[in-house]
Amino acid sequence: MHRLILIRRRSVLHGLALLAALGLTTAEAGAQVLDTVNWAADSVPDGTGTGTLAGGSIAVTYSSVAAGNSGITIPGNWVASQATNGVAGGGVTNNTSGVLGTTGLFTEIITFSQNVTNPLLLVNFADSTSSMNFGGNSIVFLDSNNAQLSGSLVTFNGATNSTNDGFAARLVGVYGPGNPISFAYSTAVNFDSVGFTIGLQAVPEPSVPVLAGVAGVFGILIQRRRRARAA
Fold it and tell me: What is the tens place of the pLDDT at every residue in 159-174?
């Protein structure tokens, strides 16, 4: 009787170990697809833009300075950019960008129609003359190129206003109606702008190999249990 219980325990532990290994293999198999804003086509540089997240269920709007190209929609390159490919390398749902701009100093506002938790901010086309101060917002860099984070201040030493100049960062907290993302964007020249988008971590669906692996593990457990009974 004791031997049968011991065999069953070993079978369960072995099965759990296989499941854990399978989970690690799955997590390491590839980067996660990033759910990014589907920006509405906009060719008017009025400093405002709109889009949606989560399949259209969350409206996203932003307010920036009405100057230069601020407020228009431009093609994105988050997967290829050296500033963001460490986060977006597994693919994005929408590879487009809005444009934030400033003339000296401007407070950027990004709002959401529903609460979002720990959103990702992706930025490129930064210039060395500019900086972004996130004040009370808790920000964590996940990837960057020619961008530096010190406390809540982002500077862009070495940036040349290219697609590879910028960062991908997590804004820690819950943002939504009445609690927008807000930060001060400043520049030492007459006008500067950056491309940007917001991302959320998409939840991957289990693949066929993963499901087959899980089924195999349970098959092993059942077979060992039958052997234990026969013994």
Answer: 999 999 999 999 999 9
